[in-house]
Amino acid sequence: MSRVVLVTGGNRGIGKSIAETFIAAGYKVAVTVRSGDGPAGALAVKADVRDAAALDAAFAEIEEKLGPVEILVANAGITKDTLLMRMTDEEFEEVIDTNLSGSFRVLRRATKSMIKGKFGRVILVGSVVALLGSPGQVNYSSSKSGLIGMARSLTRELAGRGITANVVAPGFIDTDMTAELGEELTAEYKKRIPAGRFASPEEVAKVILWLASDDAAYISGAVIPVDGGLGMGH
Q1: Distances (CA, A) of 202 to 22, 44, 121
Q2: Domain 4-172+201-226 fold
């Protein structure tokens, strides 16, 4: 598979697993990093999704070395969790600017070549909390909810040009972040998940790999949960 994939925030956690899964499947993969290196076999480009000029430079480098981006996985994101009454304007705005506005900036740039090539796959990495909600995450859940409207509006605009846009909504995933929860809190969270466990990053990555394939060409504007049943009914 010679298609070019860009994974934002692809040097750690779920993003790294997504990039590695595409590499193993034979895709040409680029990742954006703010610092450090990407996974082996990926082209790592320095860019912050909050900086449109840096993104333009990153896309120019990818296009020169790999070709036009045909598959975009907008994964870069941050959390700044605290209860609403304690949340500052900066804590709210920073999360929105990275998770939602950052996805918009990358998407706007990526779709230029997708329209030209009459092919594109956009996968936005959302979260179960987008619809379920979560105390202390008014900023994060709002940013992830916005991705659903983004994918569905993009579908209305560009589905006729061979471009799909979907949201993958992970629940609790085994990463460095969840490893810091501690045994007691981890056990409490697992009680809420019908599957009784956290997902591996690879389980999320494989769903994204499928959405990028020709097999998923008629799926667009969908929210696909990878949450072990945690968000059922939402």
Answers
A1: 11, 20, 19
A2: Rossmann fold (3.40.50)
